[in-house]
Amino acid sequence: MLRFDPQQPALVGPSGSLAVSPDDEVTRKLAMLIAGECLGLGPVQAAQAFAYSKQRYFQLRDAFSQHGASALVNQKPGPTRPYRRTDEAVRQVVRHRFLDPEASADVIAQKIRQTGLPLSTRSVERVIEQFGLQKKTLPLPAASGAPRASGRHPGAQPPGAL
Q1: How far apart (Å, rounded) are the C-alpha atoms in residues 99 and 121?
Q2: What is the value of pTM for the model shown?
Q3: Nearest CA among 7, 50, 48 for reference residue 25
Q4: What's the pLDDT tens digit per position in 115-127?
């Protein structure tokens, strides 16, 4: 009978053993499925022996039956693509920014929402930052009481003036 020995870690059978890397999740999952389905251990006991839940056992069994051993590879969790800032939404933000450079992110977001794309103001701000479409700001004039950059007083005559 084939079993998985987590102390060594190895697959152990009646004629010997086969060493398994400790971080080889695919082999551990496959050994669990073999023990549960082929060796008569059953789903609950096999899942417990390999430190998985019964629910995870059935998820892995279904994935394996549909896609083979490649389905047992751990996947990165989370969405695989942005579901709000789609390519179309980004194109619309850039388009609106070029059509009206003075429009705020809130105004652009409102225009895009009117077309049926669910996009927040913050998402519009992120797109604007991503593509460098921020408004150009001019330096503010100095306050009347503050000294100018030239170092002269506000009421002083320019040099050479009479």
Answers
A1: 18
A2: 0.49
A3: 50
A4: 999 999 999 999 9
